[in-house]
Amino acid sequence: MLLTLTTTGTPERPATDLGHLLHKHPDRPQATPLASGTAHVVYPEATPERCTAALLLEVDPVALVRGARGGEGFALHQHVNDRPYAASSLLAVAIASVFRTALAGRCTSRPALAAAALPLQVRLPVLPCRGGPDGGAELVRRLFAPLGWDVDARELPLDEEVPSWGASPYVDLRLRGTVRLADALSHLYVLLPVLDDAKHYWVGAEEVEKLLRVGSGWLETHPERELISHRYLARQRSLASEALDLLGGGDDPDALGEAAVLRAAEEAAAAVARPSLAAQRRAVVVELLRQAGARRVADLGCGEGALVAELLADPAFTRIVAADVSSRALAGAERRLRLDRMPQRQRERLALLQTSLTYRDDRLAGLDAAVLVEVVEHVEPSRLPALQRSVFAFTAPRTVVVTTPNAEHNVRFPSLPAGRFRHPDHRFEWTREEFRRWAADVAGQHGYGVRFAGAGPDDPEVGPPTQIAVFTRDGGDAA
After folding, report:
1. CA-wise closest residue to 189 among 86, 92, 88, 266
2. What is the pTM of this model?
3. Which of 82, 203, 265, 269 could form a disulfide with 103 if both were Cys (CB 3.0 to 4.6 A apart)?
4. 3-state DSSP call for residue 214?
5. pLDDT for 118
6. What's the CATH architecture for 2-271?
7. Cβ contact 44:52 at 8 Å
8. Average pLDDT, the chain
């Protein structure tokens, strides 16, 4: 995906001063690694009369899939999508990372220039503008024109060879205006994900503060501020309402100032590096196992082996058992782990077992730890006592780690209808109190102590999306 910024110069102010503002020298192409790929900055033209800086974001498709959010469509979406080409929140984060100081409105070598309005031209050759009847070029004009831009938004056809198919949800956008560079970058940073109507990273309460900071000075008076707030905050009503309340009150003491904008830019650059909830959950589980000193570990209900792969990558775990009732899941684990190509020494550390967790299996004896990651909620409540006996009485490892969804956090998922579970195969989803009560009962019956943890953003009202219980036989904290 591509963004170009062009300015013209005068004898008193050469156009190449744009390099000072962006902190990128026109004679030196620069590449910046990001979680989603690599951002390149080059200058196709750099003369005293006219200077153009181009930001090219080269998306790494593999990294994009690894960091994908849950619930983002069917599996094919990971491989067939417009993310490498269409301007989106990926490009917004690249702007915050690569042009961080310019976004903050700072330039040590040219402070007066940073505060001045410049003749600017902005080009985004492929800009999504979703929204059905409310999308398209007209939506682009509604968002950018009130900010002082002359907007030229040309709708791109679905197929140039078949005009009857009509327009695509993309435009070739050209903006012209006399504005501060920092303001231009803040407009793009906020409005790119608004037009795309999606974000590639977790949207939580901190995004409200970020929106207010980066949009300070123009968002509070924008005629489409309600639409901007709702889309920027992933249509989460509670967050959008909070943002609109603060915008309407105009009394946010921290909404102004270069330091606030710079801090928001730094937060934006870091946000993309936040892994998916599943990845965060696995990282927490692996760390808990390390803290427990476990070396022989079973992943009970291993699925297709995502956690097993991370355990294999850590030589501290000398014996890893991947167990699941589904032969199809185990076949998927074999493919994921490339069992047929695995070195012999690695292969000797691993055992794949088809077994039911509600029955005793002597092959699971002698372990230091067992984990049940997002497993118990798939078990019928009437079968839970059998699972508890199998794991805590018969297998009885020194440490057991159990993760399960926190039902209270479901209100933070905008695409999840009220009263619905996160997965159609879930038999239940517990609140934090219900989970703690169950864990305390299990610990008391089988001689374990238990303590609690979480994975994912810890919401002050509804807690983290994943709740975790760590059972230990050797003096863990009692519930």
Report:
1. 92
2. 0.54
3. 265
4. helix
5. 94
6. 2-Layer Sandwich (3.30)
7. yes
8. 86
Each domain of the chain, given as residue ranges in start order, spans 2-271, 277-472
Query: Is residue 270 pLDDT above 80, yes or no?
Result: no
The yes-or-no verdict on residue 69 having pLDDT over 90 is: no
pLDDT of residue 74: 41
Residue 244, phi then psi, degrees to nearest 5: -65, -35
Strands (E), 196-349: 296-300, 319-324
User: Could you give the CA distance from residue 48 to residue 51 in angstroms, rounded to a whole number?
Assistant: 7
| C-alpha separations of 154 from 24, 146, 227, 339 in Å | 30, 18, 22, 51
Alpha-helical runs (H) found in 233-276 = 237-249, 258-271
With cut-offs at 50, 70 and 90, classify the pLDDT of residue 147: very high
pLDDT band of 234, cuts 50, 70, 90: confident
Cβ atoms < 10 Å from Cβ of 308:
25
Residue 131 is predicted with a pLDDT of 63
DSSP 293: T
- Size of the chain in residues: 479
Range from 99-108, 384-393, 462-471 carrying the lowest mean pLDDT: 99-108
The CATH number of 277-472, from 3.20.20.140, 3.30.70.120, 1.10.10.60, 3.40.50.150, is: 3.40.50.150
First to last CA, the chain: 52
CA separation for the pair 95, 6 (Å, rounded): 15
Full DSSP string of 91-133? HHHHHHHHTHHHHTT--SS-HHHHHS-EEEEEEEEEEE--SGG
Q: Which residues contact 404 (CB under 8 A, 6 or more apart)?
A: 374, 375, 376, 377, 429, 430, 435, 466, 467
SS3 75: helix
Region of 423 on the Ramachandran plot (φ > 0 left; ψ -120 to 50 alpha; else beta):
beta
Q: Which residues contact 89 (CB under 8 A, 6 or more apart)?
A: 192, 193, 196, 198, 199, 200, 201
| DSSP single-letter state for residue 275 | P
Give how far the C-alpha of residue 407 lies from the chain's centroid of Cα atoms, to the nearest Å: 21
* 327: exposed, middle or buried (Cβ count in 10 Å: 0-12, 13-18, 19+): exposed
Helices first, then strands: H and E counts in the chain:
17, 14
Q: Does 422 have pLDDT greater than 70? A: yes
Two structure tokens written together for 73: 């469509």
